[in-house]
Design brief:
Elements lengths: L3 H10 L3 H14 L2 H12 L4 H12 L8 H21 L3 E4 L5 E5 L17 H4 L7 E3 L18 E3 L19 E3 L20 E3 L20 E3 L18 E3 L20 E3 L20 E3 L20 E3 L20 E3 L20 E3 L20 E3 L10 H10 L2 E3 L1
Parallel strand pairs: 2-3, 3-4, 4-5, 5-6, 6-7, 7-8, 8-9, 9-10, 10-11, 11-12, 12-13, 13-14, 14-15
Antiparallel strand pairs: 1-2
Helix pairs in contact: 1-2, 2-3, 2-5, 3-5
Length: 411
């Protein structure tokens, strides 16, 4: 009882969030009838509308009397963290579950309301003390680091568009399924990343990474990996075969990493904006691939094996040095979008008319003077871009397609 007297005074008069967290936690740990009554009395006096509504329901049903000291402590801690954030930053979105605990917190770009940058970093430890938080958005906040006390309850964490250079230990961070670290300053990743055994989506776009921890291979749940805009010149680790989407655009690749051959489940592969000169023959061994980006490279020849990508729907070969396509391309019956702009084509093959699903064909910026009449067989074609070629006029059969099917011709 003597210990509770100064605690009660501090609970009513303390202005520091960290001190309040300590006081409330200590009262909860005392765990007597008196300490529990103090916590309940404090909860009855909470005034914030968002909390008042939830707590009113709890009090009405008398559920709160059945709460343990630990549960009462958690509700109070959640309340004070939110209250201090509101005093400092003003409006932001958050979700409260039926037990009065924060489940989702959106603090994206919250620094814009603050008079000084990096003020949010003062609150990070307190924010991550919310043990029932499942979704947290901290985008656009000039953060330079993150504390190591991230709650294990987190399933979705967005730290994109900050200034983070180094990550803390992830060994206890096992429930997360989406981690966004896009547009930071990361040069390397900890081996403990491999402990994220529930991770499905990892966004590392626009950092300065040149290698990956070998432990990444152990994440069998990983489906989407975005490495666009980094410094990779190779990919030495074997990624998990369960991967569905891999983005390696705008790196420093001169060749296709051999490790990619085993990723037979891929549905989307991005390799645009590199320095690729050729593609390996095994590159056609992706039976489920739906989208392939090879734009802005130095390719002059396409292997016949690409014609075996029978699930392919979108193929972007923009801005290369290609003069012709292999005849196996006529097997791409699922292809809907084909971008061949800014290459060195002087003509198209007759079999182009066999691409029965084609909806958009972009030939902008080539050297084509005339088109094969077989194009008129493309009954699904909606857009045909012929700008910056050597056409004098649109062929009559195209005008007929324009009239009959509503084809949009850009010439």
């Amino acid at each position: 009882k003597k210990a509770l007297v100064p605690m009660v005074w501090a609970l009513e008069h303390e202005t520091s969030l960290k001190c309040l967290i300590t006081v409330i936690s200590t009262i909860g740990e005392i765990n007597t009838r008196e300490s529990k009554e103090i916590l309940i009395a404090k909860l009855r006096n909470l005034t914030k509308k968002e909390y008042g509504k939830v707590l009113k329901a709890l009090l009405k049903k008398k559920k709160i009397k059945n709460y343990s000291s630990k549960e009462l402590t958690e509700v109070l801690l959640n309340y004070f963290v939110i209250s201090f954030l509101k005093i400092t930053f003003g409006y932001f979105k958050f979700e409260i579950d039926t037990f009065g605990l924060i489940s989702e917190l959106d603090l994206s770009n919250i620094e814009r309301y603050s008079s000084s940058q990096n003020k949010l970093e003062w609150f990070l430890e307190s924010i991550f003390s919310l043990q029932h938080l499942t979704k947290c958005d901290l985008r656009f906040n000039h953060l330079t680091k993150i504390p190591g006390n991230i709650p294990n309850s987190i399933k979705n964490l967005d730290l994109s568009y900050n200034k983070i250079e180094k990550l803390s230990d992830f060994s206890s961070f096992t429930l997360i399924n989406s981690l966004n670290l896009k547009s930071n300053r990361l040069r390397n990743l900890p081996e403990s990343l491999g402990f994220l055994t529930s991770l499905e989506k990892l966004n590392l776009r626009n950092n300065v990474l040149s290698n990956l921890p070998r432990s990444l291979n152990s994440i069998s749940s990983l489906k989407i990996l975005d490495l666009h805009g980094n410094k990779f010149s190779s990919l030495d680790i074997n990624l998990n075969k369960s991967l569905l989407e891999l983005e390696l655009g705008w790196n420093n690749l001169h060749f296709i990493p051999k490790s990619l051959e085993a990723l037979s489940s891929l549905e989307k592969l991005g390799l645009g904006g590199n320095k690729l000169i050729e593609l390996p023959e095994w590159f056609g061994s992706y039976p489920s691939l739906k989208r392939l980006d090879l734009y802005d490279n130095k390719l002059s020849k396409i292997p016949e094996s690409l014609g075996f990508l029978t699930s392919l729907e979108k193929l972007n070969l923009r801005n290369n040095e290609i003069e012709n396509l292999p005849s196996t391309f006529k097997n791409l019956k699922s292809l809907k979008v084909l971008n061949l702009s800014w290459n060195n084509f002087t003509s198209l093959p007759d079999w182009i008319g066999k691409l029965s699903s084609l909806e958009e064909l972009n030939l902008w910026g080539n050297l084509i003077e005339k088109l094969p009449k077989s194009i008129s067989a493309l009954s699904s074609l909606k857009i045909l871009d012929l700008n910056f070629n050597k056409f004098e006029d649109s062929p009559p059969f195209l005008k007929e397609m324009e009239r009959r099917t509503g084809l949009i011709i850009k010439l």
